[in-house]
Amino acid sequence: MIPRVLVTGAGSASAMASLEVLAGGDLSVFAADMDRYAPGLFLVPADHRCSLPPADEPSYLSALFALALRHRIDVIVPGSVAELPALAHAREVFEAAGVALALARPRLLALADDKLALAQAVEGVVPTPRSWTSADILAGADPRLPLRVLSPHGAWNGGRGIVLSREELLAAARADDVLFQEVLIGAEFAVDLLLGRDGRLRALVPREMARGQGPLALTERTLHDPAVERAAARVAAHLGTMPFATLHFQKGADQRPRLLGLDVLPSSGAALVRAAGVDLPRMIVLDAMTLDAGALDSATLDLTPLAEAAEADATAVGPLPFRELGAVRTGAQHFVPAAEIRAAEREPWESVGSIRAGRLLH
């Protein structure tokens, strides 16, 4: 039997990017979401579509655990930030049942959710933008304007806007606990990384974000940029970004890249990166399944082709090579039979009400 992978949060850009790549490969791929109309669900066969309760509901973990056991899932790839705390809490329970989680370690999850903590963690390693909190501003700090307004928590998403005057700055500081950051004018990059379990950097692919909509690139290209690659490699070595991460950089007027944020979901640029030569979603699954000597059970899983690919990758010195390639995101659609949309109007493919996993995870 070939490995079985469940991608959750199937309506997110991260999940859809992973599903687009994985569903066309040599794995058996399932998708789950709380929304029966989530686009990523329609990238897998109808009998591989599952529904889940919202990640903040008490039944979420038990429902996911039951789905994983029912469908004999080998690896869960989360596609939604909302799921990460619950999955991190239950990691040992899933792994004890033989279900691997493609999930960052707790320290990285925390840094991805706290921009100030991330900046402090990489101090002296790479530059970061100058930043001020609401408390700093209300205490009398008078930084040079304009400034970008950001939430201090969550992944990098472009921010809430720009303040141009002292009046706007004070009003924003009084209204909410926000982060004010210098406005950078240089090129913006997302750098996809993957570290093997031996700590060696297996993939490092910068994507220049030529045009975007929030965190989603509409026009981008993979690009060999030595300064960005060196900065990303230093952060990876310092933080140990295992198993994978996306680092967001932007260059300042001096052309030095500054670290903006850290994303611990699988890359939303996975299709472009794969076309450029590095199959990140597949590598993430292989890493989660610990394809090393003694870890393969040929009696239950036919992993030979995947193991050979992993071994071939391991012989490479340094990150896998990639070519420079551009991509534009347009209004292209994925067509499915109308009956599949009508089916979503009824009870979705896997009834949450029928799941019984006990109170093991509560």
Structure commentary:
- By secondary structure, the protein is α/β, with parallel strands linked by helices.
- The protein has 3 domains: 123 residues, Rossmann fold; 53 residues; 141 residues, D-amino Acid Aminotransferase, Chain A, domain 1 (2-Layer Sandwich).
- It has 12 helices and 15 strands.
- It has a 6-stranded antiparallel β-sheet with strand order 14-13-10-11-12-15.
- The two termini are 32 Å apart.
What's the pLDDT, averaged over the residues? Answer: 86
Find the count of extended strands (DSSP E, 2+ residues): 15
Q: Characterize the largest beta sheet: strand count, sense, and whether it forms a barrel.
A: 6 strands, antiparallel
Lateral arrangement of strands in the main beta sheet = 14-13-10-11-12-15
CATH class of the largest domain: Alpha Beta
What fraction of residues sit in β-strands? 15-25%
Distance between the termini: 32 Å
**In CATH, what is the homologous superfamily of the largest domain?**
ATP-grasp fold, B domain
The string of secondary-structure elements, in order, is EHEEHEHEHHEHEEHEEEEHEEHHHEH
Rounded radius of gyration (Å): 21 Å
Tell me the number of helical segments per DSSP (H or I, 4 or more residues long).
12
Low-confidence region ranges: 291-316, 351-362
CATH topology of the largest domain: D-amino Acid Aminotransferase, Chain A, domain 1
The class by helix and strand makeup works out as: alpha/beta
Given the C-alpha coordinates, what overall shape results?
Answer: globular
How many domains would you count in the coordinates? 3
CATH-defined architecture of the largest domain: 2-Layer Sandwich
